[in-house]
Amino acid sequence: MDFLLIGLCLNWLLRKPPGLILCTLGIFSKMLPAVNSGCPQLCRCEGRLLYCESLNLTEMPRNLSGMMGLSLRYNSLSELHDGQFTGLMQLTWLYLDHNHICSVEGNAFQKLRRVKELTLSSNKITQLPNNTFRPMPNLRSVDLSYNNLQSLEPDLFHGLRKLTTLHMRSNAIKFVPVRIFQDCRSLKFLDIGYNQLKSLARNSFAGLFKLTELHLEHNDLVKVNLAHFPRLISLHSLCLRRNKVTIVVNTLDWIWQLEKLDLSGNEIEYIEPHVFESVPHLKSLQLDSNRLTYIDSRILDSWKSLTSISLSANTWDCGRNVCALASWLSSFKGRYDSNLLCATPEYAQGEDVLDAVYAFHLCEDTVDPTSVNTLSPMINNSDQMFGYGSAAATAYAPEADEEPTTYAITVTLPGEGAENAVQIHKVVTGTMALIFSFLIVVLVLYVSWKCFPASIRQLRQCFVTQRRKQKQKQTMHQMAAMSAQEYYVDYKPNHIEGALVIINEYGSCSCHQQPARECEV
Ligand SMILES: *[C@@H]1O[C@H](CO)[C@@H](O)[C@H](O)[C@H]1NC(C)=O
Ligand SMILES: *[C@@H]1O[C@H](CO)[C@@H](O)[C@H](O)[C@H]1NC(C)=O
Ligand SMILES: *[C@@H]1O[C@H](CO)[C@@H](O)[C@H](O)[C@H]1NC(C)=O
Ligand SMILES: *[C@@H]1O[C@H](CO)[C@@H](O)[C@H](O)[C@H]1NC(C)=O
């Protein structure tokens, strides 16, 4: 600044007219604070900014009119009286953090219309009266963190239409009154972390249309219901880590923009299967350090946009329930923490989840190892893996034993009842089966020739797609086992990836990249 001024004045001395005006203005503005009542003892003045910090002050310095910025950080102020700051009408920022302030009277901030930034953090404030901030309608940022606030008056933030940032971290707040932020239509950042919130009301956050980041970490919330954040249409990041959440639900049917959700360090045992359907843009999800034993396949299906996830330090059950998760993980392209360990059953305890899946052949169908096994999970990944629902191929394997010549796979949609499937199965006579198997062989040969001459693995993938299409048409009964087996004789999955291709049906080859017509027959 000073160099610029010297430059301007030199400019003037060299008789360049614009320099004259700027030089005079510059010198005048430098002299202004001196004119203005002088700098209080021990304080530092920079133009119209006053810094009286770390002075053990118990009272405010006097005669501060005209100041634009005032810092009283690290002093021993204990109270803010009504009208304390009158005469500071020009003030645009006020730092009062690291004092011993325990009470703030209702009209303490009178006449501070221009203040944009107010810091009251690290004091001992237990309560702020209604409308404390009302005299400061231009506030952009308020910091109340590290105090002892125990409750918030319902009208505390009324009139703060320009507020963009509000810090209340590390207080003792127990609940957030309904509509307390109603006027805060510009608020983008809200931190109520490290408090004692036990629950949230449905309208606690009403009105925060521009909020993008909400911190509720380190509270005592026991349940997360996404319906408690309605109309937070701009919210991108929600942090709920280190609460006491046991279940996550959503009782409201709506879609929001959330991209980052941190639920780590809770006690989550249950997540409602449809919760994530309301956050289709979710990119980052933290679920580590909870009590999850499995993830419902419907949840896995809704994790479509994720680019990073953390799942470690849960109590994973490495029974058959783990298959859906294992196959999802192995086809997941984003980042995830590698430290997923089995907690049960005993023989798998402490093993890495994916390692256990391979080591103990957890996701291979053990009912009839010689025939349709490796294929069956592909028929319907989700329901079958979990062992509930009507997983047809598994359920009817015993019947396949009764008719060993047919190896029929009854493919039913999961919604259909078991009786229906049995009937369909009985209709399949040996003759029909023979015809079908012949057709399938021809079909597979045709598709492989037409679609992927390249590798046997791709061929299999096409085959799977083919089968799925058939299933959709409900023309069903296939004699896949025999014919497929022939192709699979040569196919040796290489190590981990190969095995996964088998269980999860998401191999690297995908038929749909080809013109669809070529894969249809
Ligand atoms: C601050 O002032 C109080 C009395 O007002 C005194 O007891 C205390 O020792 C002072 N502290 C420092 C660091 O000067
Ligand atoms: C402060 O202002 C009062 C009147 O408001 C005046 O009497 C006093 O001299 C001023 N002190 C300084 C240091 O300017
Ligand atoms: C603050 O305002 C609300 C409603 O506007 C009222 O219910 C409450 O009693 C007020 N608090 C105090 C301390 O006056
Ligand atoms: C598996 O079954 C579920 C119903 O539980 C269905 O929504 C899904 O589309 C099926 N998957 C495939 C690959 O057919």
Automatic annotation (TrEMBL):
Subcellular location as annotated: Postsynaptic cell membrane
Entry keyword annotation includes ATP-binding: no
Keyword set, alphabetical order: Cell membrane, Glycoprotein, Leucine-rich repeat, Membrane, Repeat, Signal, Synapse, Transmembrane, Transmembrane helix
Family per similarity comment: Belongs to the LRRTM family.
GO molecular function: signaling receptor activity
Cellular component, GO, one term: growth cone
Source organism: Gallus gallus (Chicken)
Membrane topology: Single-pass type I membrane protein
Keyword presence, Cell membrane: yes
Spans traversing the lipid bilayer: 427-449
Signal sequence interval, chain numbering: 1-19
Record-annotated LRRNT domain positions: 38-70
Predominant location: membrane
InterPro entries: Leu-rich_rpt, Leu-rich_rpt_typical-subtyp, LRR_dom_sf, LRRNT
UniProt xrefs under Pfam families: LRR_8
Single GO biological process annotation from the record: positive regulation of synapse assembly
Name of the molecule in the record: Leucine rich repeat transmembrane neuronal 1
PANTHER family with a match to the protein in the record: IG(IMMUNOGLOBULIN) AND LRR(LEUCINE RICH REPEAT) DOMAINS, LEUCINE-RICH REPEAT TRANSMEMBRANE NEURONAL PROTEIN 4
